[in-house]
Amino acid sequence: MNKAIYGMAMPFNDFYADIDSKKNTYSVNRTNKAAVYFDSKVGITLNHDYNQVFGTTEDGLQIQLADAGVFFKLTPNSPLGWSVYKKVKRAALRHCSISFRKILTEQNASEEKVCSEIFRSAGYTDEVTFHDLKKIIVHEICLTNGPANELTYCTTSMEDPRLKDLSWDNVPPMPEALILPSERPRFDREIWLAEELVSISTDIKDFKKELEKAIQPNSRRKCE
Question: How far apart are CA 4 and CA 19, in angstroms?
């Protein structure tokens, strides 16, 4: 039996909330199956860190949509992948998250009113906005212990009852009808940005070292 990591990265018909404590706003987005599309390449990372990539839909990652949510299977084939596999197996990693671009949202005034009334009854004065996601484009899945939604999960057991209605045999990496081709996948762009930040950080550190070397002899001459 092939060893793999399985999980649900996004539950459907559930809520994701963004809280801005400075502005006292509470923004709620509701997910749904019909809204989900995929970039031409989707990758999987550890903790949304694009310097810690251990699979893509071109290399070991499969994604499926079911009524319950967005599911995935990752067959590890790298040192980082196997390290993550072992962490999931011993429950050191338990949850998932997902990154997507919002293409179309629709304000839901009735749900907004209900949420506001609940907040007011609890003594909160935060402004509440409520939107239904109508179209999103997924470009990344990650494994994390700090998920945006606690209903997400990951496991190394193919027999996990939460996966009972899914089959991964002869399944394409992504639902082909839901792929929206792009000239440059967002995932590749995020990797490039992460690499550039590392490179810039290294250059700054090297510059500081050279500057310190140049300054120290001059400081000694002044003291003499």
Answer: 35
Q: Which residue has the tokens 């990951």?
A: 154
Burial of 20 (0-12, 13-18, 19+ CB in 10 A): exposed
CB-based contacts of 80, cutoff 8 Å, min separation 6: 46, 52, 53, 54
Q: What are 23-54's pLDDT values in tens digits? A: 778 888 988 999 999 999 999 999 999 999 99
- Could you report the per-residue pLDDT of 132-141, keeping only the tens digit for each? 999 999 999 9
Give the integer Cα–Cα distance in Å for 42 and 58: 8
What is the value of pTM for the model shown? 0.85
> One-letter amino acid identity for 156?
T
Number of Cβ within a 10 Å radius of residue 90? 9
